[in-house]
């Protein structure tokens, strides 16, 4: 299954959350590929702690492949190449976890017919090999997003399942922006329909993920003076109303990741050790990531909203 | 069929095979396979049904003018065409091979293209050809920019077939492709064919070194290597499936069920040398002794069948006690 990770704005935790979801699925025994289509600023290697691919690879990455300068893009076996001390010991029963990095000086580029064909071949190949293929797209409307919409509309890919995750932070501006990215006149749905997707079918394959969501009832927010606490509860309630109005409400939400100090400080994978032994990360975060990972192919969470 | 005797003075044949599962929910019927492999309108797809379903596409040619990779950094420029073909076995396995016949010392200047086009699948060097260094260079690592990359040619052909609309892309299980790179030097006069090495390198790459008498055609060499690659893929894939299933662990019914795709789609594909030239078939015996391909395959298959039988007995007993 192809899982496209999109967001309207940067800083939504799209890459770091998607990487954590990929990591969770691999731990559960799936073969997972993480494709870094964030052509402007490839960050996935930093999250997976793979130094050679940091900020993209020197050459032979996805840009080189899509431009036709390499027959296959470079792959990084995360379990083998990571410097992360916990990840280096691949757990028994874990599936493959492979990163396909972009090129360091790649940038965005125009999508021609040849690029589309190569992207089609890439998606078909990865789908034949991996249970889950996470494709991390740049923030906002990008060439990568257009390419993803175009390729998934082709008859060659009709047998390949694809789903979209749209990340946003839990603020007014982010909720409005995420709604615009999906339902706006230049949004994913309109772009998809223009390329031959069925509107209803595509809408059923798009879900929102809230990231860095503060919980007014949990620490440290529950400790604040009553006036602040009341204000926060009101904000949360208003946001829920706004989200519902803008079609970003509960029925279209696949997951909600709590505000996590570890992720605020550093884009990284949250391991069980971070929660259970060193206790630097919160149990709620780990559980939310596990739930989101599981929801990817839970058919009850998808379909008509 | 290009015999390697057709080139001026052929020195070596080499190629790369890419092997993978055909991405379709069931095995593809012969007629659909023929459509899939019709890569050229002017030539037909060769199909045989005995002893198993087997189809070979017409050859497609790619013109090249580039350096050959060579150990020790020797620079040998060659000009000519790479021949590529796709093969489907039992409507289930897809392979693409790109290969060349390298002719002996050539002229110092390039001929007009018509010269090379008249020799499909042959490349001629400009000047001398250090054959041992080139053989080693071809078998080793990744091609550098400007060097001949047969793997890329095979990959492009495989991708072209794999995106055919007749395929529903719903294969019964996930699997990795493998790459097999091979080089055949000429056997000394009077000597028969020999398999000098078969190695498993990193990242799914296998390398094979052969010595073949002059009478063996490049197509026959390609068919032998495709056969090796096919069975190596089957073995690699089944080993991995059994490992993943955790057969023999506590949750036995689950493990056996997870192997169902192997029973449905793979176990009947094992048939070494089914389409290999009779004179080359003895090369398989080398691999049967060491590492013992069929022995390992049979052991795995037996293990799966034993577990299936045990599960069937357990289920039957449970059903009887339930009454």
Considering the chains and any ligands shown, give keywords for the structure.
heterodimer, A: 305 residues, alpha/beta, Rossmann fold, eight-stranded mixed sheet, globular, B: 323 residues, alpha+beta, 2 domains, ten-stranded mixed sheet, 9 helices, elongated, SCO2521-like (chain B), ParA family protein (chain A)
Could you write a compact summary of the structure shown?
The complex is a heterodimer of chains A (305) and B (323). With 305 residues, chain A is an alpha/beta fold.
Protein model, in words:
The complex is a heterodimer of chains A (305) and B (323). Chain A is of the alpha/beta class. Chain A contains 13 helices and eight strands. An eight-stranded mixed beta sheet of chain A has the order 3-4-2-5-1-6-7-8, sandwiched between helices. In chain A, helix 1 crosses helix 13 (283-295) and helix 5 crosses helix 6. In chain B, strands 1, 2, 3, 4, 5, 6, 7, 8, 9 and 10 form a ten-stranded mixed beta sheet that branches. In chain B, helix 5 runs parallel beside helix 9 (293-322). Chain B folds into two domains: 4-226; 235-322. Chain B contains nine helices and ten strands. With 323 residues, chain B is an alpha+beta fold. Classes of the chains: A alpha/beta (305), B alpha+beta (323). The A-B interface holds A 29, 31, 70-72, 93, 117, 120-121, 124-125, 127-131, 155-160 and B 20-21, 23, 149, 151-152, 155-156, 159, 162-163, 165, 167-171, 174-177, 244, 246. Chain A: This is ParA family protein.
The main sheet of chain B comes to: 10 strands, mixed
Kindly report the spatial arrangement of strands forming the biggest sheet of chain A: 3-4-2-5-1-6-7-8
CATH level-two architecture of chain A: 3-Layer(aba) Sandwich
Mean pLDDT of chain B: 90
The CATH homologous superfamily of chain A is named: P-loop containing nucleotide triphosphate hydrolases
Task: State the end-to-end CA separation of chain A.
Answer: 21 Å
CATH C-level class of chain A is: Alpha Beta
Global structural class of chain A: alpha/beta
Helix content of chain B: 25-40%
User: Residue share in helices of chain A?
Assistant: 40-55%
Mean pLDDT of chain A: 91
Strand content of chain A: 15-25%
**Unreliable stretches of chain B, pLDDT < 50, 5 or more residues?**
1-7
